[in-house]
């Protein structure tokens, strides 16, 4: 009712896109922070499987309550594909975070934005000059906010490879989940299908890993004390996928993807707040650039 008239309609759509894309970055940033901490004590596969089981259970209840089953259709194959890519990306990213240093892992992961931006350009999206400037400034800010440790940090080649695999996987999820539904109830169903696929794929990988001699649990047994954090990681990841899908449906994918990729800023700030990690000058400058880029994207 409020969004009437061509100009007002465009403004409302841009506002909705910015709001939900920024909500995505907040949720993913906090989920990555929690997942990174959990993986230092519990195998990454176990963290992924348990957190996604909890998320799938909650989403199953939501789908039944909202009648989401009626939205079943061919688009759900996008959710299945996202469900196959997501656990690979999460496992690789959590392992990379555990190997560290986070100041290298976090900025590299922002390369995931290249996949949905490329899809948007392929589909004919052409951001304006202000938005192009905003994309450049925001991405630069995100990389700097991660605190790139270019000197004095020993980076394992395995950590870099895992981070690049994670970036490709997250980018694929970005692009796929945006195509998985067109309605809110359909989105609930798509996210449920994605989570069930996550659990099946992750469960198979965990079984194979254990058969090869890897440990599924820490020496102290199942981390019951970490169950609330595991639940938060799973549900925050689900919510982030949902808010991103809404953002991508109401505005250009190029803008939604860049704003959603600000999550490393959130992870850095969470580390500062909860772990008392000090932000370096380059990180503070990067956070400022990310905010400036966000404003440019919103204004464009």
From TrEMBL:
<feature type="transmembrane region" description="Helical">
    <location>
        <begin position="253"/>
        <end position="275"/>
    </location>
</feature>
<feature type="transmembrane region" description="Helical">
    <location>
        <begin position="104"/>
        <end position="123"/>
    </location>
</feature>
<keyword id="KW-1133">Transmembrane helix</keyword>
<dbReference type="InterPro" id="IPR000620">
    <property type="entry name" value="EamA_dom"/>
</dbReference>
<feature type="transmembrane region" description="Helical">
    <location>
        <begin position="222"/>
        <end position="247"/>
    </location>
</feature>
<feature type="transmembrane region" description="Helical">
    <location>
        <begin position="129"/>
        <end position="147"/>
    </location>
</feature>
<keyword id="KW-0812">Transmembrane</keyword>
<feature type="domain" description="EamA">
    <location>
        <begin position="18"/>
        <end position="145"/>
    </location>
</feature>
<keyword id="KW-0472">Membrane</keyword>
<comment type="similarity">
    <text>Belongs to the EamA transporter family.</text>
</comment>
<feature type="transmembrane region" description="Helical">
    <location>
        <begin position="45"/>
        <end position="70"/>
    </location>
</feature>
<dbReference type="InterPro" id="IPR037185">
    <property type="entry name" value="EmrE-like"/>
</dbReference>
<feature type="domain" description="EamA">
    <location>
        <begin position="158"/>
        <end position="297"/>
    </location>
</feature>
<protein>
    <submittedName>
        <fullName>Drug/metabolite transporter (DMT)-like permease</fullName>
    </submittedName>
</protein>
<feature type="transmembrane region" description="Helical">
    <location>
        <begin position="184"/>
        <end position="210"/>
    </location>
</feature>
<feature type="transmembrane region" description="Helical">
    <location>
        <begin position="159"/>
        <end position="178"/>
    </location>
</feature>
<dbReference type="Pfam" id="PF00892">
    <property type="entry name" value="EamA"/>
</dbReference>
<feature type="transmembrane region" description="Helical">
    <location>
        <begin position="282"/>
        <end position="299"/>
    </location>
</feature>
<feature type="transmembrane region" description="Helical">
    <location>
        <begin position="76"/>
        <end position="97"/>
    </location>
</feature>
<feature type="transmembrane region" description="Helical">
    <location>
        <begin position="16"/>
        <end position="38"/>
    </location>
</feature>
